[in-house]
Write a structure and sequence with these properties.
The chain folds into two domains: 136 residues, Ribulose 1,5 Bisphosphate Carboxylase/Oxygenase; 84 residues, Rossmann fold (3-Layer(aba) Sandwich), CATH 3.40.50.790. It is an alpha/beta fold and 233 residues long. The chain has nine helices and ten strands. The strands form three sheets. Strands 1-10-9-2-8 form a five-stranded mixed sheet. The longest helix has 17 residues.
């Protein structure tokens, strides 16, 4: 496969197989984010869990202190009498049957979906559409709730839902390449602390097996586990 000159130059800045201190990794990722747009910085955490076991399925939410640098479009599925409340809280769309029908027709122009408990039976009609995309409202992630205002504001402020995939890996954005180093550091530490607290008692051995940071078009930068653990102490 032939790679562009930019690609080759960027990849020479990261030593293959090397592990970097967390603060060094952030600098490397920002230095290799040379695209013509503000690249997203993403983290991948390979965890020592077996997602096939129900008690080792890591799933939760995290409130990143500095957000991820993007506008999050929020859909609230609720009864008509609560539409105004949802919109006043900052939701981009609110309603029930109208939006459920649109989703069934292929409409997915939103990044997060909140459902009130009384409309969950209706929302189940589109579970097969929303579920695989991580958009299905779920009590465990705080997206099935009667407190619409709090849920919308938290998501708009930077709260993200995540779950470990079938390979035991969590992928999540932690900001933009334009973020100051300390803001990326704060976001990463908030995520690591959250996942650390979720460690199942049945998970044996090394919990954080590999941690990699990368920008949208840049190479993966491996992070030393020791430096990550030191950062969150």
């Amino acid at each position: 496969m032939k790679h562009s000159k930019r690609y080759r130059e960027v990849f020479t800045k990261v030593e293959r197989g090397a592990e970097y201190e967390l603060d060094e990794a952030i600098v490397k990722v920002k230095d290799t984010a040379t695209g013509k747009f503000d690249e997203t910085v993403e983290i991948s955490l390979n965890l020592g869990v077996d997602p096939r076991k129900a008690d080792q399925m890591i799933r939760s939410t995290v409130a990143l202190p500095h957000g991820v640098g993007k506008v999050v479009r929020v859909l609230v599925l609720c009864k008509e009498e609560r539409i105004s409340e949802a919109l006043d809280a900052g939701a981009d769309y609110a309603g029930a049957d109208e939006y459920i029908n649109k989703i069934q027709e292929g409409w997915l122009e939103f990044d997060a979906c909140i459902g009130t408990p009384d409309v969950m039976p209706q929302i189940s009609k589109v579970a097969r559409v929303l579920g695989p995309r991580g958009l299905m409202p779920n009590p465990k992630t705080g997206t099935v709730t009667s407190d619409i205002t709090a849920a919308v504001k938290e998501i708009k402020a930077g709260r993200l839902s995540f779950r470990v995939d079938k390979y035991g890996i969590v992928h999540l954005p932690v900001g933009k390449a334009s973020f100051e180093n300390d803001k990326l550091m704060d976001n990463i530490k908030a995520l690591i602390l959250t996942i650390q607290r979720l460690r199942p008692s049945t998970a044996k051995g090394q919990y954080f097996k590999n941690i990699t940071l990368a920008s949208t078009m840049g190479p993966g930068v491996r992070i030393s586990r020791t430096s990550v653990m030191a950062a969150i102490r």
